[in-house]
Amino acid sequence: MAKLILSMDNLQLKDIALNKERTTIGRKPHNDIQIDNLAISGEHAVVITILNDSFLEDIGSTNGTFVNGQAVKKHFLQNGDTIELGKYRLKYVNDAPPPASAPDFERTMILRPGQVVKPAEGVSDEPKPTPMQAPPVAPPPPPPPSTTLSVVGVIKVLSGGNAGKELELTKSLTTLGKPGVQVAVIARRPLGYFMTHVEGATFPIVNGVSLDAQPRKLIDHDIVELAGTKMEFFIKS
Amino acid sequence: MDISHALEIVTETSSGMVRTHNEDATRTVPSCGLVVLADGMGGYNAGEVASGMATAVLGSELEKAFTVKSPHVMEGDRSWAQIKLETEIALTNTSIYQAAQSQPQYAGMGTTLVCAVFYDNRVTVAHIGDSRMYRQRDGVLECITRDHSLLEEQIAAGMITREQARHSQNKNLVTRALGVDPSVVPELHDHDVLPGDVYLLCSDGLNDMVVDEEISETLAMLSANLPVCAGQLISQANDNGGRDNVSVILIKVKYAFPATRAGETWWSRFWAWLTK
Global pTM? Predict the structure, then answer.
């Protein structure tokens, strides 16, 4: 579950769990997080929590609400954000790992109208909610795309008018050839570079062997013939 | 009227890199210009049952309906396509809902749906949930359905931006689904179709894993070979983690396909073409 850690002058004062849809912050005693300091407005800000996402909103405070040094009116809180109110700091922590026992929570689920939206419990002893009925624990944030291939492939033209030219294959897809005549594509994937025939009656030839409809993995120093032009594929060191 | 000459349609699906089941289902009827894609949800294999029912029932019932009467015919102020999509979706919803009510192992199952019928240089699209339809025209990709999801509602309400939505942890919540309630309201829209357009129907396993710019680039580069293009989209989703089932239907519009109006003959069309 997400929480806010209240501190002043690097002294940790308390943890506040974001277990309500609205968590109010202000000087007056009816606030969920009361900060009795004249720099804080009576009703200063509110944190709205919807399942595992929280939003901070300044509700017309006199001295403003700052997140990571920037004045904000409305802010989508990210793990590690620091909210500044006068001398006080509220650190937003939302690093709840998905419970290992719940592999199904990334599944698409229906949220019914009128359903009570409450923040998900990080670890709970409650019975697992049935899919479709109860708000699920949110999935972990998506991992960074793993399309990063550590090496860069290069196509060097060996024959024809462009002989000697080199083309670095840095994009996820590179097409080669003449549209309408013969085109092949080289896809840059985590496992390497793959060539596939796209259009034209003749298929590309790699090391003297014609491709079929399947992708062909390119290996260092493969010789490719396409639309009458010879090219060499190599891995740049 | 058979329009399969005007459209090239390719389907590809994968259970992804994490899941063992594939709960997505697709159905295409090229002669009617009909495509259906559904992403099922619910425990055990119930998701597969729901999406399978949706595509099978809608595919065969709409094929029958559009063979009897052409989708462009107007009934009052609405086209036959709109009327049939709406009524058949309602009936399919009832079938899935009743199956879920009567069989304990199917309790709570449901499915998203995106269903399109091409006719008379137009397409009518019906959707429920977060399965999408995109159109690539003149190199520009546009999503022509709007998800029925919590995130999309937050975006519409101005709570978050589309960029922030990419980092949200509430991606998997849909606000409408087929078969979970006694009735459902599909969203229906008509769009003009031009030769050269490429349409993409996909489950969220694609657009959660591959950003729109990359989808657009792949469609632009590989639309000359739709099977390769579909395979490439699937492998991009899987290379990026493939955390969900991923399915795509690609439709390339090769020629215009105006409907044959009553009283029209090949000669009158030829004359119209000559005097155009």
Answer: 0.76
